[in-house]
Batch of 2 targets.
Target 1
Amino acid sequence: MLKDITFGQYYSANSPIHRADPRMKIVLLITAIVFIFLSKNMYALLFSCVFVLAVLLISKVPFKIYLKNLKAILPILIFTAIINMFYSDGTANKLFSIWKLTVTDAGLYRAVFMATRIILLIFISSVLTYTTTPNDLTDALEKLLSPLKYIGLKTAVHTLAMMMTIALRFIPTLVEEAEKIMNAQKARGADFENGSLKDRAKALIPILIPLLISSVRRAYELAEAMECRCYNGGEGKTRMKQLRLKPMDYVICFITVLFCVGIILINLI
Amino acid sequence: MDNIIELKNVSYEYSNADEEDIAYTAVSNLSLNIERGSFTVILGHNGSGKSTLAKMLNGLYKPTKGDVLVDGINTKTEETEIEVKRKVGMVFQNPDNQLISSIVEEDVAFGPENLGLDPKEIRKRVDESLKAVGMYEFKNSTPHHLSGGQKQRIAIAGMIALRPDCLILDEPTAMLDPKGRAEIVDTVMKLNKEKGITVVLITHYMEEAENADRVIVMNDGVIIADGTPKEIFKNVEMLKDVGLDVPQTTELLYALNKNGMAVPTNVLSVEETAQVIANYLEEK
């Protein structure tokens, strides 16, 4: 059912990566992505592959689920590979020609290299979304962005985090409501399945308008409820859940640093 | 006894921005005191002004005429606005539109977090509040997987985490099924009896008024009756006139009386009613 859709792709499991501090995960993810891109030669890339596969295994999220993510970007992947295949720096050996385009061994190597890089990138990024709940992600982003308040964006960070929290909370509610309205309109003879694309788009108007009106009403009531709970725009607000770095977080950090050093060394070969 | 809330000649007018001369008076010249620790039920049909009255009790709406005093503080004073809202908690009709976080315990923590309390103190209050409404085992659940009654109890927990002196509930059961309704009424009764929180329950379900200390009936922005539940429900004609339904037991005793059976009409519960009818039949 539509109702069971939850925002984000959190996959519940009990792994060291699930338990790690979300702030640490975000920072390390960015670091890992940078170093995967810095892999210059084949050995460095192979080393990255080993690292990413190890992370996937430790995360305890089934490999099948990671592959599903890959399927979505398959067209982009193939496109990038094909474009790179025809790349040549002039010194390479010709393999074969299609029409006016020539495929060289250097081009082929580059195509495989680029595709692998993108696959690694998708895999490592999905580790973050699969092992971190949306709420933890929001908290971590708020904390990581908090230095912005010193450059005049005092309320912006808090507002952004509040918006994300409310969005996460209301997505299932609104999906449920859209479903109700859809059924109500169907009962009145609305047809969402047949007709041209234009007709079907038009048929959505009687769903979107009631949904919009009720959302505005909800927003108004929510604002009153928040006011009753002493909300004043986040001034002087504290948090019940304090993020604290645990020994395991430092271990994970150390492993990632080792990976980065490894890439730098291998690049020198 | 001292009063937690005092209303002095309070009026509230909704004005139309386009046509200033057309204003709708929701509450007119109303004076009322709510005693500390009491359980008051305000009854009235739709449009009787009871919701507007409720929103004035914690300063969400400021009266257009007159003053509302909460624990001696005027709700019109801007500096004490947060303090008034902390003292007088408010629970609304739709539980879905009151919950902010997608995790139960984080939602309950929202109020105390806004007060800027210490994380340990917040944790203590959250656990206490969830236990008080009997939802502690759901602290890590997601609200949209809970029933309406459960969500409404979370909303109540979110309010009592602020440690209010008084709790206003504006038709908290209107969107719930009978089971959810019973859950809420029981929870509120318990909070009143055990924690001594003053309760003002606004409703149009008369059964919920049975256990109150005081019942106030509103119609067209004014109080038309004020007394104990038994005093109020005796007056069946008046209640029907303002569009309210009396409890079935009262209705039965009223009908019996009308048809010449002199049974006492000042009882409310099913057991008591059965008893007085049995007594009457024995005497005959």
Note: The domain at 3-231 of chain B is CATH 3.40.50.300 (Rossmann fold).
Target 2
Amino acid sequence: MTEFLSYAFVQRALVTGLLLGVMCAVLSFFVVLRRMAFVGVGLSHAALGGVALGLLLGAPPLVAAALFTVGVAWVVGWLRGRTEVSEDTAIGVFFPTAMALGVVLISLSPAYRQDLVAYLFGNILSVSPDEVLPLAVLCVVGLALVGFYFKELLFLGVDEEAARAAGLPAVRLRFLLLTLLAVTIVAAVRLVGIILVSAFLVIPAATGQALARSLRGMLVVAVISALVSVVAGLWLSWTWNLPSGAAIVLVSAVLFFGALARARRVA
Amino acid sequence: MSVPAVLLDGVSASYEGHPALEDVGFQVPQGRFAALIGPNGAGKSTCLRLLLGLVRPTAGRVEVFGHPPLTGDSDGVGYVPQKVTIPRGLPIAAQDIVLMGRTAARGPGRLPSRRDRELARTSLDQVGLADLAARRFQDLSGGQQQRVLIARALCAQPRLLLMDEPTAGLDSAARARFYALVCDLQHARGLTLLCATHDLDVVGEHADSIILLDRTVRAQGTPAEVMSGGRLEQAYHFPAHHVHQDHAAHGTDPTATSGTS
């Protein structure tokens, strides 16, 4: 373990992984509360279109993916607010469309296919020193925003109509949550990849839900399980030369099933 | 003379071009209990949504305590929905739900204060659920959940309580207890109540006035005035004895076949 921690790239991976883990765990609380798991899946796959666009245009792929995914999230939010189209249906339209766009764009630039694997499955161990600070700032700002509007987002998640009736700015809060989800998904692509990031936006809160008896407990367990998943996943990845993103998600899933088994035993 | 708690004057509203209300006018004086009745699709919920500022009228004037909704004394309006659906297994306690009533007053970035928690406790106590404050919301019975939602509305210290079919899904005894409770609260707190409901028999006993709605106001006045002269039968397109007896006997909605709300 000491040797594992002595490498600079491992330290960078741990710092960014832990920060992204906390961010994903906190957002997973609202994803589960608002039954937005499908939104997470859709937005993560939409990120592929953004990555492909960036690769084709020569722009930083994650920046392009962030702009593209936030754009998709806003269109989804707008469709839900202004039309009879539900959030799930809107995502169901945009998910395959953005993914198809990504596949077409990738087919136009075969030279970049090797890079794409890292975006699809994540490789937190390859985080460069230049990437740590922006990712850290992103997580801190995101967590600060969630903390600032936590009560409001909670009320909105439980009973949107009553929250609106109480005078809360429901539309702005919905767009805030969608934007944070989109940006976090793109940031976490480095951690677990486009394919698996949506799992990390559900499993921590599901683990918390299985174990905790209060909302605060659920949030605490979600964060702890995400942190344990990142550390244990990275260590397993290092020890047995496994893909880091898949190892992190598998540890997360093992914690969830463990929590579920414990919850059933207690019940 | 004080301004009415609720005023609708020549109000029309529509959804996607389909008219929901046409030239509706009524008012509720402060401190009174008014019931909005009418068949499904009559526009009862739309009236409440207009008063909450969730829907804008296409014509007419909507006022709450003399101001347009959400502009004047919006803190003074509490809302009790038909029900709240919480994801299965989510550990939200009754007191968490009630504390949400303080969210708007507290503002973003500030944790609930000691006073907020005290108000939540008092509100739960007033609806008789102080002992169940820490119980998970979804483990409560339908009637208890409804009382939690009233406590949440009371926690915002409203002067006007708008309720949208708050007893849907409750049995007859629970409905009677519910209305007894809100009437007690009305008198204790000087609340104005406006309740959209199908509970014709129960509100007939408790309400000060009834507004019979069927896209427009068909009748308004005391329960005795509105429930006589064949007005109910005309609005519900149903024989009078069915409107009363079926509902009283089975706790069901006598207009369930006439469309959706």
Note: The mean pLDDT of chain A is 87.
